[in-house]
Amino acid sequence: MKVQKILLPVILLIAVLFPLISQNHYHKQILILVMIWSIAVYGLNIISGFTGQLSLAHAGFFAAGAYTLGILTSTYQMNFWLAFAAALAVTVTLSFVIGLIALRTRHHFFAIYTMCVGFIIYLVIDKWDEVTGGVRGLIGIPVPSPLGPVTFDTIESQYYFILFFLLGTIIAVKRIKDSLFGRTLFAIRGSEDLSKTIGINIMKNQLLAFVLSAFFAGLSGVLYAGFIRFLGPDISAITVTFEMLMYLLVGGIGTMTGPVLGTFLIVTVTQSLQFLEEYRMLIFGPIVVLIMLFYPKGLVGSYHSLKMYFSQRRPADAKRKIKEAG
Questions:
Q1: Which among 35, 36, 87, 300 could disulfide-bond with 68, CB atoms 3.0 to 4.6 Å apart, if both were Cys?
Q2: CA-based nearest residue to 143, from 128, 161, 127, 130
Q3: Residue among 175, 204, 213 nearest 92 (CA)
Q4: Rounded to the nearest 10 degrees, how much is the dihedral formed by the CA atoms of 209, 212, 218, 221?
Q5: How far apart are CA 58 and CA 39, in angstroms?
Q6: Alpha-carbon distance 272 to 280, whole Å?
Q7: Residue 298 Rama label (left phi>0; alpha psi -120 to 50; beta)
Q8: Could you say which of 3.90.25, 3.40.109, 2.40.50, 1.10.3470 is the CATH number of the domain covering 23-294?
Q9: Are 301 and 254 in contact (CB under 8 A)?
Q10: What is the pLDDT of residue 300?
Q11: Sign (positive/negative) of CA torsion 146, 149, 150, 153?
Q12: CA dist., res. 276 & res. 18, Å (int)
């Protein structure tokens, strides 16, 4: 706990000062992408880490937010901030309708159903050329409109803009985890039958978790569209969901620092291996496999397990020494 209290402010300070220290635009772009993906992974952590349900439609909700913003701003010339709000509203509404049906299933059936939903969203984006642009994609998405004297036309301003939303996401997810609602989700993850016996409404709580998860995915998609300014149907592919899940598993599912840590490590490592082109996965793949084999709870989860092990071992060692001395 003491380490986290010191480490988190240090990481925050480094994140705030980085654009002022570094003049490398490429590194700033990579960190911006890390922050954007981290927001989506925090959303996935709510439904999968807190609630124990594996949603494979996460990339679909990410794409729904991104494409709604892109269509409204590039095709209909809507104000960025109005389109921003509309994109989140569309994502939340879509997830609510899907969740009402999906959450009537359980476990692997839920995963299969959401995977099918994600594939349907991909097909809609890929084939509806008149609206989404199909395989050509959407171009000409504007950067965020100025807020008074604050503009977002430089890499530094976009960095701080997205950092603001990442911090807001972390604070919101932390409050959810520490709230009665969060403890209810952990209880459902532990045992749905036991949760029912103490009066917990399983469907209501899981549906809220599903919608919140999709909200953060949509928020991440909106920020992605405003930063990249071009969208293609590949962002809704099932492989994108698996990448997000990999970020979460490597960092530590159900933890608070796992999503951002896993995303940072994997994105930076894959980018650093770009010079190997298609062969980079021959190196990166085994690394991920080894992490999952030796650290099944993720890096953060394994750290907590080791800390708990040594904290429990100290009193036992002390008692043994006292007994030997006596």
A1: 87
A2: 161
A3: 213
A4: -80
A5: 12
A6: 9
A7: left
A8: 1.10.3470
A9: yes
A10: 75
A11: positive
A12: 27
- The two three-digit tokens of residue 106, written as one number: 């359980």
Q: For the segment 257-283, what is each residue's pLDDT rounded down to a tens digit?
A: 889 989 998 888 888 777 766 666 677
DSSP SS3 for 150: strand
Tokens of residue 115, six digits: 């995977």
Whole-number Å distance between alpha carbons of 31 and 243: 17
Residues 192-248: pLDDT tens digits? 888 988 889 999 999 999 999 999 999 999 999 999 999 999 999 999 999 999 999
224 close to 62: Cβ distance less than 8 angstroms: yes
Tell me how far apart the alpha carbons of residues 27 and 215 are, in angstroms, rounded to a whole number.
28
* Segment holding 176, helix H or strand E: helix 155-178
What is the token pair recorded at 126? 């890929």
pLDDT digits (tens, 9 = 90+) for 133-190: 999 989 989 999 998 888 998 999 999 999 999 999 999 999 999 999 999 999 999 9
E-only strand ranges, the chain:
138-139, 230-231
Task: Residue 111: name the closest of 180, 54, 152 by CA.
Answer: 54
Tokens representing 209 are 């978790």
> CB of 54 within 8 A of CB of 48?
yes
In single-letter form, the type of residue at position 196 comes to: K
